[in-house]
Write a structure and sequence with these properties.
289 residues; alpha+beta; 2 domains; eight-stranded mixed sheet; six-stranded mixed sheet; 9 helices; 28% strand; globular; disordered N terminus
């Protein structure tokens, strides 16, 4: 799909977190992102299935996306006596309907591929926004909505559909995510991978144990390396303090082209893994308290 790019020159609200693509390996994929991608593809394959729509709507409301943003400065004027820092979201035209959308991405690797094919995207950097924040921006600047993973899945989420799914009684994503996955043991055991992950986990005090398995969505044929961590810290700290460290440590020991999912040990899937799979790492001694 061909796309064009433009900049919305109105200042936007400061996003909650900035991510540096150079420090985020292409192979990392959070448990939440993997689950959302699976639900999105299932819904795109069967858009008339009400159960799939409910699950997709629930996941969408909890999802955050990366969006290309360009920073700038607003000079002082008679109306605005103080200069200010501004952010401008990128805008792309979806050729299938001719409308303008904010391009958004479920992971940085997809965003980097999109930007590499658009020379005028060089000044843009990646910021993370919730789905609600992005839809508010689209509405404020009279755009059609957001375009999820343009060039790959290319799913247009319009403002009209966003309003509609709020009328649907969605299934809570966290209660049903386990049903979308299957896991298996890794044979032979990747000893070097376990060792390097253990070294990183020793520096994460609130990581009590960890399991290494292969995981796949039910509608996919390929399993992906997955680390599930019994983490006793704040959920919001997990991505920054745990998942990135483990993904960076594991990257050199993964098979060529393989991704790794890093998630917390929780839900029914977590219970099954805890009782049926031996942990490769357990914190012991006085540091475990």
């Amino acid at each position: 799909m061909e796309t064009d790019s433009a900049t919305n020159n109105h200042p936007v609200q400061q996003p909650k977190q900035q991510h540096d693509p150079d420090r985020h390996p292409d192979g990392i994929m959070s448990f939440r992102t993997s689950g959302f991608s699976q639900r999105l593809q299932s819904f795109m394959n069967q858009p008339m299935d009400p159960e799939l729509e409910h699950r997709f709507a629930a996941a969408l409301m909890e999802m955050s996306f990366y969006a290309p943003v360009q920073s700038g400065r607003r000079h002082a004027s008679a109306k605005q006596p103080r200069p200010a820092f501004t952010l401008s979201v990128a805008v792309t035209t979806y050729l299938a309907d001719g409308y303008k959308y904010i391009p958004v991405f479920t992971d940085l690797a997809k965003m980097q591929r999109f930007m590499a094919g658009s020379p005028n995207m060089d000044p843009f950097r990646s910021f993370e926004f919730t789905s609600s924040e992005l839809m508010e921006e689209a509405e404020q600047y009279n755009l059609k909505g957001i375009l999820i993973n343009p060039g790959e899945q290319s799913f247009p989420l319009t403002l009209e559909y966003w309003d509609y799914i709020h009328q649907v009684a969605p299934v809570v994503a966290s209660q049903n995510q386990d049903e979308d996955f299957k896991y298996q043991l890794i044979n032979p055991t990747p000893t070097k991978l376990e060792e390097t992950l253990s070294q990183s986990l020793r520096h994460i005090r609130k990581a009590k144990a960890a399991w290494l398995i292969k995981l796949k969505p039910n509608n996919d044929n390929s399993y992906q390396y997955t680390v599930l961590v019994d983490y006793r810290g704040k959920p919001n700290d997990f991505e920054v303090k745990v998942s990135r460290k483990l993904a960076m440590a594991a990257h050199r020991y993964l098979p060529y082209g393989a991704d790794i999912i890093v998630g917390r040990l929780e839900g029914r899937l977590g219970d099954e893994v805890k009782h049926n799979v031996d942990a490769f790492y357990k914190r012991t001694g006085w540091l475990s308290s």
